[in-house]
Every structure is written in C-alpha cells, then in structure tokens.
Design brief:
The chain is α/β, with parallel strands linked by helices. The protein has helices at 36-44, 109-126, 136-139, 153-158, 169-173, 182-195, 203-217, 228-238; strands at 6-7, 13-14, 25-30, 54-56, 62-64, 71-72, 79-80, 83-84, 90-95, 133-135. It folds into two domains: 6-158, Lysozyme-like (3-Layer(aba) Sandwich), CATH 3.40.80; 169-238, Muramoyl-pentapeptide Carboxypeptidase, domain 1 (Orthogonal Bundle). Residues 29, 136, 144, 146 line the site of zinc ion.
Length: 240
C-alpha cells in the first residue's frame, strides 16, 4: 500500500533514527491554532520546538512533516501503561482545528476521511494495535484537551481504529448523573488503569482524568464527575 503525501519538512525532530519497530502508538491532536497557515508555520519553525509526523489540512490534504524514522516533538510529558514520554514510541498526527480556545469548530468530513485513511495505512504498515491509537488528552490529560469531544472516536472504532464499548446507547443514558459510591469510584479508576490510563493520586488531576475519559467515551455530558454511566462504560472497556 502506497500513500501520496504532500511534503513540508519540519526541522524539529530528534536524531539518531529510530527503528520502526519501536513505534507502538498513534497520537491524534488538533493544532489549537486559529489558522492553518499559522499552524504550518509553527510546526515547521525551528524556534517553536514542536512538530508532528503528519498534518491534516482543512481540505483533507495530508502533509508529511517528519519521516517516521525520526522522533517528532508532538506529545511532551505523557504516560500510557508502562510507557513514559511517548514521542519516542509514537506517530503524531496534527489535524487543523483552532480548538477549545477558539470556539472549537467541528472537524470537517474531508479531515475525518483523511485521518481514517491515514490511520488505517499506519496501523497496517507499523502493525499498531487499535487500542494504541489515542488522543493527546488520553496520555497528557493534566495539560491537554485535544483532539477533544468532537473527534469521532466511535466512527474510528467502527473502522477498527479505536477501542469502544458494546453497551446499548439508550440503556447507558438512563444511568447518566446517577450517583456512585466511593468503592465504585475506586473501581472506575482501577478500570481506567486497566485500559491504559495513568491514574494520578491528586484529586484535581483525577477530575481531569475523568474529563478526558468523558471527552472520548461520554461526550453528552462533560463535567468531570463519575456517574453510573461512566462507571459502566469503563468496566466494559476494561474487559475488551
Ligand atoms: Zn496535542
């Protein structure tokens, strides 16, 4: 399988080369930059110290900025399972979207189709587990919200590109806002740990973790509070 990328190389990457077998994750981002031109400038400017392997434009065009054999600087401080500082083990995909700081518009159809096509290609080429296709907020939830609640994770799961639960939607909604016990809250966190999330002991960070979970799996209500719906989803995911 070949892929036609546009090229716009970024000088921001680490040497020496890595082995492609080291790559275990795909991390999805939004740029959080108001305009596409600004985002491209930032990702290719030597002073910004940030980059990404791929950039998906508003028209769906996929730009290769850093070849896969080099480590791009997209994820920063991050944890997932036993992995720390995920740049080394991941491919970064930045999708142009101004993000929460600028009214957070929806990703458009062309961007979604391109991100699916690109992830399918990378998953096959690099032999990546669908459970390791993650959002930046999954691995850096104390600092990051991207790609955010408008990213179509359920559709990704349908395309075999993400983990998802198999609980009936209407049944789930009936558990929304239902209060859970302290023991159940602890179960929630231990299930999140099983899924791969790092569980911080700090209560403020725990709330941010719950929010990151909701942005992905329970987008109808983002409040950082564990209710029965969150509990059931996490339990189901931990078993898949
Ligand atoms: Zn990001």
């Amino acid at each position: 399988m070949r892929y036609n990328f546009s090229l716009n190389y970024s000088p921001n990457f680490s040497t020496p080369k890595r082995s492609l077998r080291q790559i275990k994750f795909i991390i999805i981002h939004y740029t959080g930059m108001k305009s596409e031109i600004k985002a491209i400038k930032r990702l290719t400017n030597v002073n910004s110290k940030v980059s990404s392997h791929f950039f998906i434009k508003k028209n769906g065009e996929v730009v290769l900025m850093v070849p896969l054999k080099y480590i791009a600087w997209h994820v920063g401080r991050s944890k997932w399972k036993n992995f720390n500082l995920l740049n080394k083990y991941s491919v970064g995909i930045e999708i142009q979207n101004p993000g929460h700081a600028f009214k957070y518009p929806a990703f458009n159809k062309k961007q979604i189709l391109s991100s699916i096509k690109l992830c399918k290609f990378l998953k096959k080429e690099l032999n990546i587990n669908k459970k390791n296709i993650l959002g930046h907020s999954d691995v850096s939830y104390t600092r990051k919200k991207d790609p955010g609640e408008k990213f179509p994770w359920k559709l990704f799961a349908k395309e075999n590109l993400s983990l998802w639960h198999n609980i009936n939607k209407r049944k789930l909604a009936s558990f929304r806002k239902k209060i859970v016990s302290k023991t159940e809250k602890n179960n929630f966190y231990s299930n999140l740990k099983k899924i791969g999330y790092f569980v911080d002991s700090n209560s403020k960070n725990k709330k941010l973790l719950t929010l990151a979970f909701q942005r992905k799996y329970r987008t109808k209500l983002l409040n950082g509070i564990i209710d029965k719906e969150c509990l059931i989803i996490a339990k189901n995911l931990s078993k898949t």
